[in-house]
Amino acid sequence: MDNITFLGKQLKNPLVLASGILGNNAKILERVHQAGCGLVTLKSIGPAPRDGHKNPTVIDLGGGMINAVGLPTPGYDHMDAEWQALANRDFPVNASIYGGSVAEFVKVAQFVSDQGPDFIEINISCPNSDLHGMLFGVDEKAAFAVTNAVKNVIAVPLIAKLTPAAPDIGKIAKVCEDAGADAICAINTAGPGMVIDIEARTPVLAFKKGGLSGPMIKPVAVRCVYDIYRAVSIPIIGLGGVTTGEDAVEMFMAGATLVGMGSAVRYRGIHVFEQVNRELTDWLAAHHCTRDDIIGAAHDPIAGPDSTAKKSRKTP
Question: Catalytic: which of 37, 126, 176, 224?
Fold first, then answer.
């Protein structure tokens, strides 16, 4: 699948690198883009230097992974070399940010916006950090406050990344839309969960609990995207467990405009983006349809190319 437009920016395809995977520096981001990714996302940037949690931080469970990396970051004002390296890039970048308060989100967002990313994504959904967790993503008032405050200080489109832990993720998405978000990203890792070593009688992760990712959470992610699509008119980046072109089709049918991948890099390598894009293109050709035809197609009665409800949605 070739070029598409998303929030006024040209992307070479609808696939997104999720935050936290291969997003540590400009060279890696460029490599991911060259490997077939349409939009790359920086690892979440925080208000102050943070080491993250001690090892072990990531465990492969077979059908997915559990992790508690702990949002490590050099801090928003200690990244001069990276911003300089990204200044002359020829690929689109989504900058993920986080904070422990509305004021911290605003401080980081304002600075990061001045560095010229194509989008800013507010991470209000991390399940494995005590101070910078998913508080904002499960409470409607908090979600509105941080989204609205950030929207007022940035000069680029705003994406709100949500957690499946929200009691009603559709309501949280609608609140973010009302507060000024230009798009929704869903979902972050599910959980928190825990794995116990029964011989050592202790949790395996150093932080004890962590977020679940990979194929095991795809049904949860698909349901969340489905619920969000019914609640908002802005575009959705659907991610969580996508590893194949057919998985991407499922996300589009649930209502996603773009599809993100993270753990898929672990299972299929860095070229998973060009592989999934090819699989998606082949599936669409075999079914004589386009991506636009299948976005939201699982929704009744708003499925189908002639649907009034589909046509009323905002153009990405």
Answer: 126
- Give residue 290's identity as a one-letter amino acid code: T
As a whole number of Å, the CA-based R_g of the chain is: 18
Q: Is 68 annotated as a binding residue?
A: yes
180: Cα within 13 Å, side-chain hemisphere: 18
User: What token pair was written down for 246?
Assistant: 């057919």
- Does 5 appear as a known binding residue? no
188 is in an annotated binding site: yes
Q: Is residue 284 predicted with pLDDT exceeding 50? A: yes
The pTM (predicted TM-score) of the whole model is 0.93
Please, what is the angle between helix 140-151 and helix 169-178, to 10°? 30
Closest CA to 188 of 228, 217, 158, 150: 217
DSSP-assigned states of every residue in 123-137: E---SS-SSSSSHHH
Q: Confirm or deny that 214 is annotated as ligand binding.
A: yes
What pLDDT, in 10s, does the model give residues 191-235? 889 999 999 999 999 999 999 999 999 999 999 999 999 999 999
The mean pLDDT value of the chain amounts to 91
For the question of residue 176 being annotated catalytic, the response is no
Dihedral sign from CA coordinates of 64, 65, 71, 74: negative
Is 71 labeled as ligand-binding? yes
Distance CA 200, CA 231 (A): 46
Estimate to the nearest angstrom the gap between the alpha carbon of 25 and the chain centroid.
18
Please check the confidence at residue 307 and state whether its pLDDT lies above 80.
no
pLDDT tens, 150-201?
999 999 999 999 999 999 999 999 999 999 999 999 999 998 899 999 999 9
123 among the known binding-site residues? yes
> Is the Cβ–Cβ distance between 278 and 35 less than 8 Å?
no
CA dist 15 to 129, 145, 208, 252, 263, Å? 27, 29, 32, 11, 14
- Sketch out the chain's domains with CATH numbers: 4-311 (3.20.20.70)
Rounded-to-integer distance, Cα 255 and Cα 295, Å = 5
